[in-house]
Design a protein that fits this description.
The chain is α+β, with helices and mostly antiparallel strands. It has helices spanning about 1-20, 150-160, 170-185, and strands at about 25-30, 35-40, 45-50, 55-60, 65-70, 85-90, 95-100, 105-110, 115-120, 130, 145, 190. The longest helix is centred in the first third of the chain and has 18 residues, at about 1-20.
């Protein structure tokens, strides 16, 4: 009976271990956050552009003239005699001009910039959890009553295929006798179910 029980347990557990081996894997979330970027621009290239300048506005300013009357020493009342005349000093003038206000503006080429980025310092770390698959095999072997002849024959066949000395394997009669003896003593035996 001990040999039979050992053979049944070995066959049941070896088949379960072959089919029941769940795997465990890390499951992680995928947090994302934007990079820290700032623009890096080339030195601007600019020049001054002015509109065409109109002519300056000029005015002439002169001093008051200094004049006097001169008469000849020898004068007469008749026609053809020399007459008196007005004589002035040369004119004293100067020109004053006002230049127009220039209209100028800076003109620059198109701004050329590029982005320089670095990793953020406040990005959250991923959260991981180890998860295992559920076993697909039965945790306990299926058990049937050994009093049925078909189940008893399956027990003998299982005992015969168990590792060990084949000569030590019990016969069908020995198996049935052990079962009856166990039933009289109140023992419950578990046999493989007939396929």
């Amino acid at each position: 009976a001990a040999f039979l029980a050992t053979a049944l347990a070995t066959n049941s557990t070896s088949g379960a271990e072959a089919q029941c081996h769940p795997e465990c894997k890390w499951q992680c979330d995928d947090p994302s956050c934007p990079a820290v970027c700032h623009p890096v621009c080339e030195r601007p290239k600019c020049e001054i552009s002015c509109e065409e300048t109109p002519c300056a506005k000029c005015t002439i300013h002169c001093e008051r003239p200094i004049c006097s009357v001169r008469c000849p020493k020898d004068m007469c009342e008749m026609e053809g005699c020399p007459k008196c005349e007005t004589v002035c000093s040369p004119a004293k003038c100067h020109t004053k001009c006002v230049a127009p206000e220039p209209k100028c503006n800076p003109v620059c080429e198109e701004t050329k910039c590029d982005w320089k980025c670095k990793k953020p310092t406040t990005c959250p770390k991923p959260k991981c959890e180890l998860q295992c698959e559920k076993p697909e095999c039965a945790t306990t072997p299926k058990c049937c009553e050994c009093t049925a002849a078909g189940n008893a024959a399956a027990a003998v066949a299982a005992a015969g295929s168990a590792p060990g000395d084949a000569e030590m394997a019990p016969s069908f009669i020995e198996v049935m006798d052990n079962m009856r003896h166990g039933k009289i003593n109140g023992e419950k035996m578990c046999c493989p179910c007939k396929a």
